[in-house]
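Hey team,

Filing this mostly as a record. A colleague (T.K.) asked me to run one chain through the structure pipeline before their review meeting, and I want the input and output archived in the tracker in case anyone asks later how it was produced. No errors, nothing strange. Just documentation.

Input sequence:
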Amino acid sequence: MNNHYEVIICDIWGVLHNGKNYFPRAVKFLKDFIDKGGLVILLTNAPRRSKNVRDYLLKMGIDSGICQYIVSSGDCTFEWLNTLNSSPLYHLGPAKDNSLFDNIKINKVNFENCDDCICTGFFDEYNESIEDYESILNNLKERSITLHCANPDLYVNKGSTILPCAGLIAQRYEEVGGKVVYFGKPYSIIYDQVIKRANQILGKQISKKQVLAIGDGLYTDIMGASMNDIDTLFITDGVHKEQLDEYIGNSEFERNIIINFIQENNINIKMPKYIQRELDFFNYI
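Output structure:
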């Protein structure tokens, strides 16, 4: 990889860990790339600021060397929050995301009285469904409130459990006619930020041809990099694992089968340059 790329932009959840345990071979892959002179920037749709993401990764036991540079959708969200001043804001999301509001003055109110809304996820992703949010979304829609989504992901795998994310609420809000602003992948604003960060770290303008994006989300990681003319490595044993395992069945794990899956699901992306089950030094297809 070092012969072809100077920078790796790597997703976190689904590539480096599954929400419970980190993947040693993935960590070793990135550490080896850094040791050979490459730059790794972790890019995540976590609705938390990069410092909090780093603390989480270090607590999990991931090598500090690959956690040095992180850009999160929470960082992008925080920049927007700084523009609100005293505008009444409704936080649609769990208390665990309250670190997003650290060191900033926010006028939090209930949904009936807000002028702005930030969505970071389900209040209880283990026990709730999207139907539980109909009354809130309908109220916001009736008052033409824009919903700002801090995590465009629809679902995430935590171990063997599939959990809904803020993107699912935002998707539903659009379905009922509401307006949504997204922070994070696949939207260009976060890729502009990460390329800018790479240029600052390296002290030069980096060509996108020298950048590889690694991720497990076709609609976020791979689509976002594709829209920004960045080569991709698609990890199949992430958020799409269950769908892909059913699609592949007893067939061999081959590139043409994965490409067929992408095409049959009408996912409008430039096809991944590399495909692996999990991030490792070998077994690219």
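Quick notes for T.K.: The longest strand covers residues 39-44. The CA atoms of residues 17 and 264 lie 28 Å apart.
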